[in-house]
Design a protein that fits this description.
Order of helices and strands: EEHEEEHHHHH
CATH architecture of the largest domain: Roll
Distance between the termini: 31 Å
Number of domains: 2
CATH class of the largest domain: Alpha Beta
Bound molecules: FE2/S2 (inorganic) cluster
Oligomer: single chain
Length: 154
């Protein structure tokens, strides 16, 4: 039995220790907001927080998060109760198809929690591993700048 905290609540799943965290969260625990992109740690679509740090959940064995705090996009907010960061995303019309945006938001939130006023270079460094086939990069960067101006981190 694998046990950890998921969005502030105790979670457990009867799965193999080496199963990727992404699979456990999506398929065993039913939270579908984190996306499968490459499955190899290369695109960022699956980004979650583990103890506040952005991780690629597709290459993170669930056993490695035992007892730790995992946060997914569902822990940030919902359509009905969007977080301040999600509201900025909507205000600036950041998403296009939307597939990558869960990972983008989680990566941005981890950056802003670590560095509330990031420079453009720090934004580039933190976000460079999160790919967007729709090319929303300029809007993502602008949304992070706006969030920093407003003191928004999540
Ligand atoms: S799906 Fe995890 S990094 Fe691409
Ligand atoms: S919004 Fe389509 S992949 Fe990023």
């Amino acid at each position: 039995m694998q046990q950890f905290q998921l969005n502030g609540r105790a979670a457990q799943a009867d799965v193999a220790a080496e199963m990727p965290l992404l699979w456990v969260v999506r398929d065993a625990l039913g939270l579908k907001g984190s996306k499968f992109g490459c499955g190899q740690g290369l695109c960022g679509a699956c980004t979650m927080h583990v103890d506040g740090v952005a991780v690629r959940s597709c290459i993170t064995p669930v056993a490695s998060v035992a007892g730790k705090a995992v946060r997914t996009i569902e822990g940030l907010g919902s359509l009905q109760q969007a977080s301040p960061l999600q509201k900025i995303w909507a205000e600036l019309g950041v998403p296009q198809c939307g597939y990558c945006q869960s990972g983008q938001l989680m990566a941005a939130s981890a950056l802003l929690q670590r560095t509330p006023k990031p420079s453009d270079a720090e934004i580039d460094a933190a976000m460079s591993g999160n790919l967007c086939r729709c090319g929303t990069y300029p809007r993502i960067k602008q949304a992070i700048r706006v969030a920093a101006e407003r003191g928004v981190q999540a």
